[in-house]
């Protein structure tokens, strides 16, 4: 049975939320925040709340840039998300990667402006500078309805086995990255990141839930089944479409991709 995603038309990232103004109580100044929508609509989180409260960037947040150790460790984004997502909300590591990307883009656009400078390469290999309007990036809504356990159904096209899988969180992606780095340090002959990630997604195959067995099965499953499931996951995964189209030096449109690295938040600092 063919499984098709229910992906809706991508909608522009909007700031259709209310803003809370500075409120001075005694000696404490409340940091203004906004309520922003999540691409996942919150359907996979406890309480299924479709929005999250995020504070605006402040001058204090820029102290992160003065900490070389924090930047070199790669933990600056964790620290920033912990500071900006208001207490009582979801832990940023429990967010889907696409939801966190949406928050990062909002923080950047409201903190340093909607225009983001990028370097793009022409088909001939020449680089040129241009800008991307962050408000024109499209949100990709979740493309399928999960079951009561937050899992999705899929049937392998070749083996016809029935699968239940989950979408990965920021925490999951970090663990996968650490595992990949460890393999690189060991100078492994080849990386098994692709199959291990797919095995992390899958929670059961024809009702069998033993994770060791699932990982072993994924290693030897038909390539056609592997590709089909990975494509379906990509189709239904919510987030922000980071594919961009800019005008080239000759006026022709050029396709590129927006990278959310350290310099995305503070490009003027040349991190």
List the helices and strands and how they pair.
Blueprint: E1 11-12, E2 23-25, E3 28-30, E4 33-37, E5 51-55, H1 68-73, H2 76-84, H3 97-112, E6 115-121, E7 127-133, E8 138-140, E9 152-155, E10 162-165, H4 170-185, H5 193-201, E11 202-205, H6 211-220, H7 223-236, E12 239-241, E13 243-247, E14 253-257, H8 262-265
Helix pairs in contact: 4-5, 5-6
Please describe what this structure looks like:
This protein has 271 residues and is of the alpha+beta class. The protein is 31% helix and 22% strand. The protein has 8 helices and 14 strands. The chain has a 3-stranded antiparallel β-sheet with strand order 1-8-12. Strand 9 and strand 10 form a beta hairpin. Helix 5 (193-201) packs across helix 6. 22% of the residues are buried.
Summarize the structure.
The chain is of the alpha+beta class and 271 residues long. The protein is 31% helix and 22% strand. Helix 4 (170-185) runs antiparallel to helix 5 and helix 5 crosses helix 6.
- How many beta-strand runs? 14
Low-confidence regions: 1-9, 15-26
Taken in chain order, the helices and strands follow as EEEEEHHHEEEEEHHEHHEEEH
Helix content: 25-40%
Mean pLDDT over the residues: 86
List the total number of helices: 8
Ends: how far apart? Answer: 49 Å
Question: Which percent band covers the strand fraction?
Answer: 15-25%
Oligomer: single chain
Major β-sheet annotation: 3 strands, antiparallel
